Amino acid sequence: MSLKKLSKLYHYVRCIPKTLFFNFYYLPFHQAIKLPILVNHRTKFISLGGRISIPESAKLGKIKLGFGRVQIADNKYSRFIWNIGKNGHIKFGHHIKVGTGSKLHINGMLAIGSGSNFTGEATIICNHVISFGDNCLISWQTLFMDSDLHKITDLENQQTNPDQPITIEDKVWVGARSTILKGAHIATNSVVASASTVTSQFDCDKVIGGNPAYVIADFTGKVFHK
């Protein structure tokens, strides 16, 4: 066996304790026994609240949390953070990876569709609703936040900045260091250029970018593959 394969095997063996704990903590026994969720041994659990939903047919290791290598990330010290409040609910599809150094702060509803891949160091702060469709590709150091994390009130003490959902439809590619804020809706088969800030709604088959983001190009009828 090659040194690379031995290193990979050693890495997975070290993940066994947290993987066992996580699956049997969050999932019913008939699902947990299959160990469908692999958890990196460097994961830091801040809060183990809320609940998780996965497909009944999910198989061994098809949902990976904290795995993968990103050239700009320190894979030894960039830890995966799990911080799920009591009202948090995460729905995973099939074949999902949330990469090394990512941070999940969830006290609302987060849905991640099948085949979606967060390459690394993504931050998701969800107090309301954030949904990702199938086969999305999310590059490194991206931020998704459906809340301002503070209240602004008017003279009648009414909140003027309520939380708003974020919707990312199927086959969306979000470039590195982009920020997706509350109220954003990115339709199917779209690309977000790196370092963009998205706060509004965009139709399908668009390339968007800028701060704030605007439509750069239209590729209706074309497809891209991750």
UniProtKB/TrEMBL annotation:
Q: Which residues form a coiled coil?
A: none
Record keywords: Transferase
Stored InterPro entries: Hexapeptide_acetyltransf, Trimer_LpxA-like_sf
**GO molecular function terms attached to this record:** transferase activity
Out of the domains of life, which is the source? Bacteria
Record bears the keyword NADP:
no
- Its protein name is Transferase
Taxonomic source organism: Vibrio coralliilyticus
